[in-house]
Amino acid sequence: NAGVTQTPKFQVLKTGQSMTLQCAQDMNHNSMYWYRQDPGMGLRLIYYSASEGTTDKGEVPNGYNVSRLNKREFSLRLESAAPSQTSVYFCASRPRKAGAGEKLFFGSGTQLSVL
Amino acid sequence: QKEVEQNSGPLSVPEGAIASLNCTYSDRGSQSFFWYRQYSGKSPELIMFIYSNGDKEDGRFTAQLNKASQYVSLLIRDSQPSDSATYLCAVNSGTASKLTFGTGTRLQVTL
User: Fold this and answer.
1) At residue B101, does pLDDT exceed 60?
2) So what's the pLDDT on residue A9?
3) Between B8, B46, B99, which is nearest A40 by CB?
4) How would you label B32-65 residue by residue, b for 16+ Cβ within 10 Å and e otherwise?
């Protein structure tokens, strides 16, 4: 059982380059999320998808786009990378039922550096 | 004002002592509260959740919630070196399944 799989694990980009971070979950979860984590800033929500076919902005969406390709996959795209987007990116998923106790399942993260 | 606030630490406690981690939140409509542990270079993992005022115990961990004071805490009894990690407080305001995280408190358990 793979859980939440993120690719790639590491990436170095030059300013202005584009790339897509891939995320897939095999737990039949409805909700999926993209967070970024910076030193001293905690986890900040970029975008989320409460269910297949829907996406919504989180706290820091500027410079990013997302696609909920199907129930399993939720990708994050940087159209024109900037040094401020250097961060660790985590994808997470969560079952349908809302409320207490519904844990987020995290992927292993992507370390992205933009030079 | 940040939605979820934590002291960044590091909080240093000796092995066997009680570690007390605190978190405050700004949204009075928040409904559920979570504590995640994150080891360096790893992804966060859930260790406790609580949604009613009072205490909730699970092994060496106790979560405490006071909605009137907008305050949630995590107590770790008999702290072990393996508890050394960053502890993230997260709050669900009940809208659209979003969790808002604090910046985390780094805990160091010393021998």
Assistant:
1) yes
2) 95
3) B8
4) bbbbbbbeeeebbebbbbbbeeeeeeeeebbbbb
Tell me the average pLDDT of chain B.
Answer: 92
pLDDT band of A47, cuts 50, 70, 90 = very high
Check if B12 contacts A (Cβ < 8 Å). Answer: no
Residues of B in contact with A50 (CB under 8 A): 96-97
CB of B77 less than 8 A from some CB of A: no
- For A106, the closest of B8, B33, B44 (CB atoms) is B44
Whole-number percent of chain A with pLDDT over 90: 76
Cα–Cα distance for residue pair B106/B77, rounded to 1 Å: 16
Q: How many residues does chain A have?
A: 115
- Please indicate whether, in this complex, the C-beta atoms of B101 and A109 are within 8 angstroms of each other: no
